Amino acid sequence: MAIPTVVAFHYTLKDKDGNEIDSSAGGQPLYVMLGKGHIVKGLDKVLPDLDVGDKKTIVVSPDEGYGPVDDELRIKVQKSQFPAGTDIKEGMQFQTEQRPGAPVFTVMKVDGDEVYIDGNHMLAGVELHFDIEVMEKRPAEMEEIAHGHAHGPGGHHH
Question: Mapped to the 3 state alphabet, what secondary structure does 58-113 carry?
Answer without folding.
Answer: EEECHHHCCCCCCHHHEEEEEHHHCCCCCCCCCCCEEECCCCCCCCEEEEEEEECC
